[in-house]
Write a structure and sequence with these properties.
Helix content: over 70%
Mean pLDDT: 90
Number of helices: 4
Radius of gyration: 16 Å
Shape: elongated
Distance between the termini: 40 Å
Strand content: under 5%
Length: 102
């Protein structure tokens, strides 16, 4: 189970980000308005933390991949690098409306 969590770590971070940003926007819509600056900054800070987590996961996986002894061991690290990179791009893409204000 640990190998699966490692290989899918970036996608798990992306899922947590999606649910978290949705929860923040929903809470902001109930309490006040979703486009109020404090709520936007909260969503942006959460997105930044998730992007850093996905990027760190990809960096650790890339380091492990360079040090792996064989291709069978490196496959999980390749998937972790791919998932972490994809998650980083997706999180930044999903945070852009918060940055530009729409």
């Amino acid at each position: 189970m640990g190998r699966w969590a490692w290989m899918l770590g970036g996608l798990i971070v992306w899922t947590i980000h999606f649910m978290g940003v949705y929860a923040i926007a929903s809470l902001a819509d109930v309490v006040s308005r979703a486009d109020d600056p404090p709520w936007r900054m909260t969503g942006l800070a959460f997105s930044g933390a998730c992007a850093l987590a996905a990027l760190a996961l990809a960096a650790v996986a890339a380091r492990r991949l360079r040090q792996s002894p064989g291709p069978a061991v490196g496959f999980g690290d390749q998937l972790a690098v791919l998932g972490g990179g994809l998650a980083t791009v997706a999180i930044v893409w999903q945070a852009l409306p918060t940055v530009i204000g729409h």
